[in-house]
Specification:
The protein is α+β, with helices and mostly antiparallel strands. The chain has 5 helices and 8 strands, in the order H-H-E-E-E-E-H-E-E-E-E-H-H.
């Protein structure tokens, strides 16, 4: 079984909404087995990450100009990539400049959420959906985070602050899970 297949087979959804998203993602992979990452599909895979700094309980958010809001880091697989964790790690490193990213809470990567999200139309791209596989990464050097481009501002927020900024969509539910993990490990998830 492929890395992607293992991630999807082993993931347990946290609620009914995520169960629906997971089922859609599994169907996508079954129907487009050779190319579920293809941006030509109206629903395609992406890999992303929430980056945390456990000692302070903060999470890193990135400004997404196209969507006009702060979100997590991540994106599309490059040609030849098929492991969503590898995509998430590469994208997180590229978008933050952080070279010390490791799985959180570790030592093995944790697929914390599968979410299908709508992406609005823009200049060269029609409206579509991402089947986003979200992982957790941590850094011990938050001060070294640097945006990949000036308009992709990076900010560190407490989980509560981040939660209030992103609202009640799937990312909010993901942040709730991150807060519980940080609190369980002694991090300051509510600061």
């Amino acid at each position: 079984m492929s890395a992607l297949g293992r991630w999807l087979a082993n993931h347990v959804p946290a609620d009914e909404a995520e169960a629906v998203h997971l089922a859609r993602t599994r169907s996508l992979v079954a129907d487009a087995a050779d190319s579920p990452w293809s941006r030509e599909l109206p629903l395609h895979l992406t890999g992303s990450a929430l980056v945390v700094h456990p000692p302070t309980g903060r999470v890193l958010l990135r400004w997404h100009e196209h969507l006009g809001r702060y979100l997590h880091v991540g994106g599309h697989g490059d040609p030849g990539e098929s492991d969503p964790y590898a995509v998430a790690l590469r994208e997180a490193t590229e978008e933050t400049g952080l070279e010390d990213l490791v799985p959180f809470p570790g030592p093995e990567p944790l697929l914390v959420q599968v979410a299908v999200v709508s992406v609005p139309e823009r200049r060269k791209e029609r409206a579509h959906e991402h089947a986003d596989l979200r992982f957790l990464l941590s850094t011990s050097t938050p001060e070294l985070a640097v945006p990949e481009k000036p308009q992709a501002v990076l900010v560190w927020r407490s989980v509560a602050e981040a939660r209030s900024e992103v609202g009640n969509d799937g990312l909010g539910a993901c942040l709730d899970r991150v807060g519980l993990l940080l609190a369980g490990l002694g991090g300051n998830a509510d600061r």
